[in-house]
Amino acid sequence: MILPHSGALKLSNGNCGKVYLTAAGPGDPDLITVKAVEALRCADVVLTDRLVSEVILHRYVSATAEIIYVGKECRKKISTPQTEINNLISKYALEGKTVVRLKGGDVSIFSNILDELQELVNNNIPYEIIPGVTSALGAAAYAGIPLTARGYSTAVRFLTYYKSDVVTECYWKELAKTSDTLVFYMSAATIADVIEKLTTYGIDANVQLAVVEQATTCFQKTYTCNIYEFTSKLKGRKFISPSLVIIGKVVALHEQFKWLTNESAGKQYFASVSGSKNIYELSNPVKNAI
Ligand code: SAH
User: Fold this and answer.
1) What's the CA-to-centroid distance between 1 and ligand 1, angstroms?
2) Alpha carbon of 178 to those of 191, 194, 202, 206: distances in Å?
3) pLDDT tens per residue, range 206-221
4) What is the pTM of this model?
5) What is the pLDDT of residues 99-124, one digit of tens each?
6) Which of 18, 28, 35, 49 is catalytic?
7) Which of 31, 33, 51 is the pocket-test mutation for ligand 1 (most atoms within 8 Å of CB)?
């Protein structure tokens, strides 16, 4: 018996279009879901983040659809203001178009999905949320680091530390003592501060850490060391964006279980927002999108 399929894509049947908040996965274009591909194939307009593989756009977006780049690049302080992204989403949907808002990794993890959901609800625009492989899971799998390997860790935490007040002192104290695996998003540039905090609160110096650059792409590179070696081995290194930091005993498994053989590092997989040839005029996206 074939069971009914709750996840089937339902297109809008009213005058208003529909918005698919869609995950693209972390980099490897084959990590996108079937459902996300279906949404992309139906889209009239695709509003895409920077950390989305160009291959996905080439493969699945119809030639008649409009692709709008609304990327953000915090390190370079370039970004499409969130209000302008919200305006674009609702403008196209209210014109009756099928809109895909495409985000790297998963749609909900460290993204501005809340603002976009609020915009959709405020305007009575129908939507679906299509989940995906978040970069922590992609990086861990492609680096051979099982995040909750039996005997090593019983939990994993997704964190970020891009500025000094996102983690309280009290929480640092707990993080330094936990045996949970810690994954830090948006923190490769602040990794020295992360290690300093954990050291201050007494993390075991033998705990290992990994920085996974451009995870799941053909340029993935993994750097590992233990807390004790951090200063001599990795401190001061500039990691290519995007990079992810994994801290915990499980990182020791990388040496034995790494399987990726194409670690040809050095090049940038995701185009810079400012360097993209399809660059979307950031100062006035609504006007330029018309
Ligand atoms: N929604 C995304 C996260 C967006 S925040 C997700 O689910 O993955 C952006 C941060 O995610 C980056 O600064 C980096 O820390 C991480 N990231 C995204 N893609 C990555 C990749 N391919 N490799 C390593 N880190 C990545």
Assistant:
1) 40
2) 18, 15, 11, 14
3) 999 999 999 999 999 9
4) 0.91
5) 999 999 999 999 999 999 999 999 99
6) 49
7) 51
